[in-house]
Amino acid sequence: MYIGIDVGGTCTDAVLLSSGKVHATAKIYNTPENLLTSLVQALDSVMKGVSAEEIERVVLSTTMITNLIMERKYDPVGLIMMPGPGRKFQHYRNAHVHIIDGAIDYRGREIIPVDEQQVMQALKLLDAEGYDKVAVVGKFSTRNNQHELYVNDLIKKYQPHWQVEMGHRAGGRLNFPRRIDTTLLTCATKEKYHYFVQSVNEALDNRQIKAQVFIMKADGGTMTLASSEQSPVETIFSGPAASTLGAQSLTAAGETSVMVDIGGTTTDLALILSGKPLLSSQGVLVGDKLTQVRTLAVKSVPVGGDSVVEMVGKELIIYSERMGQPYCLGGSFPTPTDALNVMSLTKLGDKSKAWEAMEKLGKPVGYSPVEVANKIINLVVDTVVEEIENMFMGWEQEPAYRIWEVMQKRRMRPQNVVGVGGGAAGFVPQIATRIDGTPVLPPYAAVANAIGAAVAKPTLQVTMRADTEQNIFSVEEDGYQGRINQSPFGFEESLSLAKEWLIDKAKKMNIGDEVQNVEITRQEVFNIVRDFNTTGRIYDICVQTPRGIQWHIGAEGKLYEK
């Protein structure tokens, strides 16, 4: 039996799968001040009559990191950066950023030592500004991390209680600006994410569940919950990824669809092409900055069923923040869920309270409750449709989308709009009509995110760097360094060695059967040149067990005619 749990901004959803079929489901409104309460209630609900020994695997997803970043509720972080000669990164210069001397070249050789006095001055200023979280990033720290480690040691010596994150740990690729932003977000969210992991472990331990525990990554793969604490930003689009896999599992194999997950806090969008979620070629975009986090081509729109609605003059405004439950469930503010209730598009909560909420909004400007409800629903639909159209412009630029179009032998857009999440039934038919699509509401749509987590294949990755001049290779995840014993040793040999480590690792975790058609997520080759001659090469390769779903739960979703 497998358990899938999605901890969203509004609800914690859980499912229990047995032999690939849904055995039990649960949807619990979160208790923000005590996340453990929601987890416990969801677990207890789906595990009634089931012993802990029967649970083989637990897979989680969460929008916690997504919501923290979108709502800017993360902690302030100082930045000590070592860009070296060349680009000056003037746009990073502000009160919390300190640029110091120190440079490593692309081969990992020190060309400018770190200036200790500059580090001490930066620490003094950061302390005066009240910072206790610091990101330390050097341009070529992935080639040699000695400068980052040196600065980290100085910080720990003089400010031992500060949290420090280093660029070579947060992002393994060479793109310096993206590694900076990835490290900043890692530092900003790590403490709150640690509380989430603690809550999950406590809930499982209390129920004596000893199964393997994984969490969804943004690319639709998984990582162990324990290892995710080192890189919480890998879960930044964990929730949307789970929803996408849930929609994939709940619709017919090979379908092409836009996925619209309308939750309480956000609406998540994704694209499934011929049964496979579209992978972004660029990485997670946060605001206007790209990170090194690999992701499905998804987007979280800051509007959901519990978003606060206010009348400003004669205009209705939907705010991005959620301020508790809908009015019909005892909350203090009108929401789109109340509008759906008035229009009989949901049975959630007290309908008389929903009418009261709409009446309060409309009375000052002479609108009836029905008029207000219609305007709110149309406003949500307008917002989501606009975002879908914007997303299509981005999706159509993705290499995988272009290849898919070539395979179709004509330009076309997906015809299905698969609605999942608590608000799907009320909004998706109208959204689909607006983009000339066919709305599909599959079974178990309300807990599709938890289903997506439960059916996700467990994935592992191995990041290997080989230097043929020095005859050494290293495996980042295990902190291992060894000698290269093959000659000649080229790309194929590097890839083969990385795969061997991945297969061995998968077997140790009892998921060896998943190692088929290993996915190469990164491959970079650098020539080592001395006196105009190539004396060796550096191979940087990251491989992963294949992403995907283990079962299709059902394809008999309710289909609405346009």
Characteristic key phrases:
single chain, 562 residues, alpha/beta, Nucleotidyltransferase, domain 5, Rossmann fold, 7-stranded mixed beta sheet, 6-stranded mixed beta sheet, 26% strand, disordered C terminus
CATH topology of the domain at 2-71 and 193-242: Nucleotidyltransferase, domain 5
> For the residues shown, what is the average pLDDT?
84
Q: From the coordinates shown, what is the CATH architecture of the domain at 2-71 and 193-242?
A: 2-Layer Sandwich
The CATH homologous superfamily of the domain at 2-71 and 193-242: ATPase, nucleotide binding domain
Number of H/I helices: 15
CATH class of the domain at 2-71 and 193-242: Alpha Beta
Indicate the proportion of strand residues. 25-35%
Largest sheet: 7 strands, mixed
Q: Give me the Rg, rounded.
A: 25 Å
Helix content: 25-40%
Distance between the termini: 38 Å
Low-pLDDT stretches: 556-562
Task: Describe, in short, the structure shown.
By secondary structure, this protein is of the alpha/beta class. It is globular and about 80 Å long.
